[in-house]
Queue: 2 jobs
Job 1
Amino acid sequence: MRTSWADSVANSASENAASGSLENNGLSRPTRSTYVPPHLRNKTPPSSEPPAPSQSNDRIGYVGAIGGSRWGGGFKADVGRSGHNSSGSGYGYGGRTGGGLNSRSGAWDRKEREVNPFGEEDGKDAFGEQENTGINFDAYEDIPVDTSGDNVPAPVTSFAEIDLGEMLNQNIRRCKYVRPTPVQRYAIPIVLAGRDLMACAQTGSGKTAAFCFPIICGIIREHSVQRPRGPRTVYPLALILSPTRELSCQIHDEAKKFSYQTGVKVVVAYGGAPINQQLRELERGVDILVATPGRLVDLLERARVSLQMIRFLALDEADRMLDMGFEPQIRKIVEAMDMPRPGLRQTMLFSATFPKEIQRLASDFLSNYIFLAVGRVGSSTDLIVQRVEFVRESDKRSHLMDLLHAQRENGVQGKQTLTLVFVETKKGADSLEHWLYMNGFPATTIHGDRTQQERELALRSFKSGKTPILVATDVAARGLDIPHVAHVVNFDLPNDIDDYVHRIGRTGRAGKTGLATAFFNDNNLSLARPLADLMQEANQEVPDWLTRYASRASYGGNKNRRSGGGRFGGRDFRREGSFNRNMDYYGGGNIDSGYGIPSGYGGYTPGVASAWD
DNA sequence: AAAAAAC
């Protein structure tokens, strides 16, 4: 399997191609069943061959006019919007739901038909989705789970055990979710029980549903609550914050599905897009507001949104939301406006990584919370082959070109191999994209200096396979669910190992194998040790030269040490430093290694330094 | 030092 990177990519592509034949054993490797995120299960197989990719990128007039009009924004106003903002007619007045929710919101006299978010799923891109029946759901049974906190509610094993209500159950069926994922099994009962939650779980493990289901359920139950009526101010009951616009859009799209015909209204607000349209959406009523911090602060200062009635607050990618760049804004939203205090609202923090210092910060926002860490089946540990190569700065471009050439030659005919290339800077992204394009590789780029239209267009162009190479800054590192990414290249490694974890998590999704290649050189010395440790725990081959760098590397403190030494997760910082870590100092500490499966799953052997020690 | 996030 690990013969060469090109083979890995080719294997990945051929597994995609052979998906139909996989369905009966559900295994791409003999030893472990594969985990498929719920939103990707049970899609119908493609009915026709995907079209060959066209050799172009998404920039109008790009080739001939590199200088002037390149950034000119010469797009039509509706370009870049079709994937989102379908909320335009989102009245959610199902007719048979009783409609009590809408009458509060002042839009009850306009019964527009709610767009069915389930009808348009298939045949959307050049790939088609694989049939996932036959997945071995018993794979769930040996996922290590760690909970701590007072009186942790018992997990469930099926959606039927949870009373989410008929409307929500119907949408769960429409989403083809068969059984809850591990994070859902634990998180949903915790939130339904009214508890605050800090959850470590990988993206793609069903996090979005894990916080959306209990929020929607809670809003349906509280539908009789009286909300103030301002002439222009709206009073959402739930707020979901995320660090990037694209991620907010993605969460919004998901939440729309889950709340279809429940009468619960979901609105998204983010920067870079005209505010007027978003204001109109808000005026039509909002129960769940999904937003990026900057635009929300704007709306709050204009008094167009009040947080006074917030019952649920969810921070996705919570560790990023609380890092240095974001923390002041988040504190303003959560502590300095009219948001109810902890204990009077329910707060949920989710991320795949949760450094100790951030946990400490986050505890300001929480009240008697439960900490939940869910290990992963598949994805990084099992399904991503990680390679690291020593590449001098000046050799990076030609090295990348070699990779791409070989990949093109090894690719399965007619199947796209999406490659996501991470760089450090926005300028570097533009310059690399330009260079790739000039060398005949259809590439596009996404970063914070592009307009929102350009960003969304680039993402769509990449997802569809039109430009199968996407050069990205960290704006694309977290949370984005892009199926079919076979290869993540860390052209520039990040300085923080957590960022590396998030970046490589863009591949190896949906039970497919993925490849992550990193270019390492003298500029990345501080990453040598954490990277070597991480790869070792993930059972990856660590080159000798990296081990040497790692042992040589001495750096102060544990800044780059992952919290608790754990991989792909973390542990409750409240339990650090207690005299006996096995005593439940805070009560309720509980390591559940899972349903009678003996310890020793992958690298997570209890007793060894890991997330579960 | 860089990236993200409002106008």
Job 2
Amino acid sequence: MTSPVRLLLADDEHLIRGALAALLGLEDDLVVVAEAATGPEAIAMAIAHRPDVAVLDLQMPGADGVTVATLLRDELPGCRTMIVTGHGRPGHLKRALSAGVRGFVPKTVSAQRLAEIIRTVHAGNRYVDPELASDAIAAGDSPLTAREAEVLELSADGAPVAEIARRASLSPGTVRNYLSSAAAKLGAENRHTAVRLAQAKGWV
Amino acid sequence: MTSPVRLLLADDEHLIRGALAALLGLEDDLVVVAEAATGPEAIAMAIAHRPDVAVLDLQMPGADGVTVATLLRDELPGCRTMIVTGHGRPGHLKRALSAGVRGFVPKTVSAQRLAEIIRTVHAGNRYVDPELASDAIAAGDSPLTAREAEVLELSADGAPVAEIARRASLSPGTVRNYLSSAAAKLGAENRHTAVRLAQAKGWV
DNA sequence: CGCGGCTTCTGACAAATGTCATGGCGGCGC
DNA sequence: GCGCCGCCATGACATTTGTCAGAAGCCGCG
């Protein structure tokens, strides 16, 4: 028998992380060698313990799972990464895959299933939850140009156009044009619903 | 020794629920008698299995934890309820307490700690996470009137005033007045930032 | 009973926003 | 090189929103 798979677990919810560590530890071919509660901590722990697979939560303080995965790809090429998430948006999956992530699963799977997927990933294969994958395909690519997306994101907190223009170093008129065309592309009647739509698709 | 505490676990994330069930089951004075993934399912399971303590996630499909707790208080007076949540907003805590919930904890606590709190709650005492409590005190009470809150909530998805008026069966002018006064009370410069603020405080 | 607060409405005005046409600039593909 | 597309801007216009004053009915509290 080969040596066990060394795991890093990163999740800001101690309850989940601890429970997960306990359950995965029961599998005799898996061993949790490090845990982290924040993005930066995950990176530090990964470098210190050099796990075979890093299981990362998508939403963490400091840096999200995809960001951590991106850094890890450069720092620790031998370490496979996978994302576990509560509510995954289509856009996140795309970002994750281009960051070299090899597994993407929702928290609705069982621990049993997660263990299998960890083995799959460790073997060098990919695994993406079928439902999330079909969502991503259905959502398609963002129809927004770079500036449209940027301006839309800046308008996410409900700031007036003048404020957005200031933050983007653009003319207010230009901002209104971008917002208008972004809303048209998304089929929204105003920029606020446009923001919601884009966020739901994970495009911002 | 007394008989073990019978638990109901409700959380839509199978991974967490299963892991939690396993960990809490290790405590020899606790036993998980039922699990549920949705609000309605939690209610049905509670009535069927009559647990001593119901551990409810705040965000679940169908009906949220507080709603479930409210129903349970009437249906199963002998059953203590507690809420476990990822990101608890101040307003939620208030709603939960008035629904008769006896425990309110974030998912950042350890399983060890959760087990102790379950015992505390089962003994008839209350437990509220200190940090969440101080947040709630700092946030204070909502300054909004019932209608202001209602209209603000309807405007949450960015719908235009005409749409909100239709849904609330109010005159557009009235809606604008409510939104205006709500924004003024919250110190926001428009209704969209007002919505964000109110949501952050848990007032909507 | 009167006072104050909440609810609901109207009307009017100012400001912000959405829409459209138009134009210049720069890059990319054929 | 020419055309297309994205980027940035301006100006004008219609629409939507925000703000304010005023007014009526209802309810609870002292």
